[in-house]
Amino acid sequence: MEISACNLCFSYDDLKVLKNINLDFEKGKFYSILGPNGCGKTTLLDLLIRHLTPEAGFIKLKGRKISDFSRRDIAKEIALVSQNYDINFPFTVKETIMMGRHPYISRFSSPGAEDIRIVEKIMAETGVEEFKNRKITELSGGERQRCVFARAMCQDTPLLLLDEAFSNMDISHSLSLLNMVKNQVKMKNKTIISVFHDINFASMWSDYLIFMKDGRIVTSGKTMDVMTEETVMNVFHVESKVEFNRYAGAKQVYFKKQ
């Protein structure tokens, strides 16, 4: 397994957020985590990247406890695109994206030719090259989110965590970047673990879905198997119609207007 959660528990003060989470994530797969607000999705990602420490259980990365890895080594293995990225210093877009190369640059050293090449390539592929010299503090929410995405891509890690990474983007850029990520799953055998707000987007792009509620795993498995009306009712408490949509090439969920 690329990364695993083993009997994971976590609380904020007296509030139990995660309760005995057991998950295995394989190489070359796209996983999405779905569930109501407050069910523990973002907390789970923060534990997987060691931004938080579990109160019980542990994370294994490539067969070793993640606590055995240095911060620099983790940054070479896992990148995160967060839904909320606050940066108050007026770095340029290019400087911000270059931060993704820091795990590979020796302390007090400057970026090398390969680092610059990778950053230029990713900026072009993510469509941020046109405003690379602007200050990131001057950008719109969607433009800033694309820069954060580009920075994570420059880390070139085997694991990519996406925490509602497309929530501020328009549909065109969301589709373009999702295509880019899916291509890396196929071509580079990367593992993607994403939190989606949009259940239909998750179904379209994911090999596996993980449904959470009240800090627990309700069900998980191949998308075609677990995307059902019963699951939607159990997790979100709403009636729905779930059927395969040929145009989307995936199961989609439809809701009645009240």
Description:
The chain has 258 residues and is α/β, with parallel strands linked by helices. 34% of the residues lie in helices and 28% in strands. It has nine helices and twelve strands. It has helices at 41-48, 71-77, 93-98, 113-126, 141-155, 171-188, 199-205, 223-226, 229-236; strands at residues 3-12, 15-25, 30-34, 56-61, 64-65, 78-81, 159-163, 191-195, 208-213, 216-222, 241-245, 250-254. The strands form three sheets. A six-stranded mixed β-sheet has the order 6-7-8-3-9-10, with helices on both faces. A four-stranded antiparallel β-sheet has the order 2-1-4-5, covered by helices on one side. A two-stranded antiparallel ribbon has the order 11-12. Helix 4 (113-126) packs across helix 5 (141-155). The mean pLDDT is 94.
Quick overview:
With 258 residues, this protein is of the alpha/beta class.
Q: Mean pLDDT, rounded to whole units?
A: 94
**What portion of residues is helical?**
25-40%
**Which secondary-structure class do the elements indicate?**
alpha/beta
Radius of gyration: 19 Å
Across the major sheet, the strand order is 6-7-8-3-9-10
Strand content: 25-35%
The SSE order reads EEEHEEHEHHHEHEHEEHHEE
Cα distance spanning the termini: 44 Å
| Uncertain ranges | none
What is the general shape? globular
| Main beta sheet | 6 strands, mixed
- Total of DSSP H or I helical runs spanning 4+ residues: 9
What key attributes describe this structure?
single chain, 258 residues, six-stranded mixed sheet, four-stranded antiparallel sheet, 9 helices
